[in-house]
Amino acid sequence: MKKTILLIHTGGTISMSEDTSGAVKPGAKNPLTEEGQILSSLANLIVEEPFNLPSPHITTDNMMELKQLLERYNHSTEIDGAVITHGTDTLEETAYFLDLTVQANFPIVVTGAMRSSNEIGSDGLYNLISSIRVSSSKEAYNKGVLVVLNDEIHTAENVTKTHTSNVSTFQSPQFGPIGIVTKQGIFFHHMPTYRENYTISNLSKQVILIKAHIGMDASLFYAARDLKVNGVVIEALGQGNMPPATVPGIKALLANNIPVVVVSRAFNGIVQDVYAYEGGGKHLKEMGVIFSNGLNGQKARIKLLVALARTDDLSEITEMFRL
Ligand code: ASP
């Protein structure tokens, strides 16, 4: 029997076309809506288009709107799965946000495309078909929000965009995909070991992301304090170390009860308090910096936004980042 799939279009290259000058942009009509016949042979589709935005235009309000839309269907209709089409630039952030916060009892798959609808080798329709197939499969349950492109199934938590233009851009460094899509079926070969889900009702705090570099000083950290941001994520060096000149700035943030979360700018491995020199991981931890467990910078930022939507308590936030 055909499954009922909620298909939510949000924009991105998958919903754009190339003009004669080679420029890629959205048109008056989403080209995916022209594909009704092929898609409806796969599933009964309920189509929603809450907005049509390139993904650099997506805001936290848009992410909350998507969460609420999914939850509305969770409460009201018999849905077997959901697929969200999204621009690839920020796809991993929306997917991870939904993974952390949506309460739904059906699989959710996020997909996109690297080549727009009328380009040679366009991957949009193919990725959408794969995603409908994955979201319709019973094996997709209880694995969190999934990201499906280029015949691979990734977890929202681990996947990241690794290439500016290649169709195999989405990778899960260190872990790999958890399944594959073939002509004959959907095959999962790994199972996530844990799931996190948090109830939130708003996403209104301000969290900024700062990347560390050689010779860095404290000025950006003082600026963050003066801007009264609610949280700071630092993509630190190696296992979680910072240049010594940044330390007074990080201390100033902590003295103002602004949580500071450290991830690594290296895209494999986790941060740990290993080094005991000025600005080293041990020193940062003693100061009260929170160490994140393997997330990249943009996802740690999403997690800190979610944490701050629930609590100001530093020990609770620290505990959330232990997972
Ligand atoms: N810049 C586009 C976007 O994120 C890229 C894409 O969708 O692949 O909207």
Please give a handful of descriptors for the protein shown.
single chain; alpha/beta; Rossmann fold; 4-stranded parallel beta sheet; 16 strands; 28% helix; binds aspartic acid; asparaginase; L-asparaginase_N_sf
List strands and helices in order, with pairings.
Elements: E1 4-9, E2 16-18, E3 24-26, H1 36-40, E4 44-48, H2 60-76, E5 81-85, H3 91-101, E6 108-111, H4 124-135, E7 146-149, E8 152-155, E9 160-161, E10 170-171, E11 179-181, E12 186-188, E13 207-211, H5 219-226, E14 231-236, H6 247-255, E15 260-264, H7 281-287, E16 290-291, H8 297-310, H9 314-322
Parallel strand pairs: 1-4, 1-5, 5-6, 6-7, 13-14, 14-15, 15-16
Antiparallel strand pairs: 2-3, 7-8, 8-11, 9-10, 11-12
How would you concisely characterize the structure shown here?
Belongs to the asparaginase 1 family. This protein is α/β, with parallel strands linked by helices and 323 residues long.
Verbal overview:
Helices cover 28% and strands 19% of the residues. It starts with a strand and ends with a helix. The protein has nine helices and 16 strands. It folds into two domains: 185 residues, L-asparaginase, N-terminal domain (Rossmann fold, 3-Layer(aba) Sandwich); 114 residues, Rossmann fold. The mean pLDDT is 96. Helix 3 runs parallel beside helix 8. The chain is of the alpha/beta class and 323 residues long. The protein has an eight-stranded mixed beta sheet with strand order 4-1-5-6-7-8-11-12, with helices on both faces. The structure holds aspartic acid.
